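SAMPLE LOG
Freezer: B-3
Tube label: C17
Construct: single chain, 258 aa
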Amino acid sequence: MRPEPNGARFRSLLAILCSITLVPGDTLGYTPQQSSKPAQAPAASAAQTKIPPEQVDSLVAPIALYPDPLLAQIFAASTYPLEIILLQQWLDKNKNLKDKELADAVAKEPWDASVQALAPLPQVVKLLGDNIQWTTDLGNTFLAQQSDVMDAVQRMRKKAQDKGNLKSTEQQVVETRVIENKSVIVVEPANPQVVYVPSYDPVVVYGAPYYPYPPLYYPPWGYYAAGMAISFGFGVMMGAFWSGGWGRAGYWGGNNNV
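STRUCTURE (predicted):
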């Protein structure tokens, strides 16, 4: 049995995003958690595996520069790693489904809404499914150290911004805002109905890590345009999926009623 209804889980996620504090930090690190327990482990067990900020930085490094709406979905979905695997397998068998047909079909599956919402983004599902240990670690850490995870996102964005590698493009808008006396870096889609998934090598955009970054696949140097640290593929029109938090702005404020 899941601890919270789908709607409550997502509202809880947005509340976490609202409570972010920008914390300075210069070190990076990531050490995979050794537990193979599912992400929905009891809070007491999660507390025993609490990891320090430097390791949380490296844990979130591969996705910290994703636009806020996509980042929110990934954090929620990562707490259901088995369902991500099932979605990945399901997408392989239903490649012909698009737009509303895809939305209607995946809605019939008994998965969390955050997992269903990733269906139009197979490259994201592949990233999470092919690296399920990292995804499980991400979900466990998000459940046990939610505010720490969101603080780490801000630290990594600040690192990339300071190096000149995080800025507005035709795909996304990057702004530094002061919200409730907190300085936060907000990343939003340039077109609120189109999602672009950024691709980057953490070593390039942040610098060398204190601990190794998660051993994921990062595109070779030739994949990127000349002088670009971050690359974007084709934009995805969310269409029928534009609900349940997709496309909403203002994640980092504390008084949003989403």
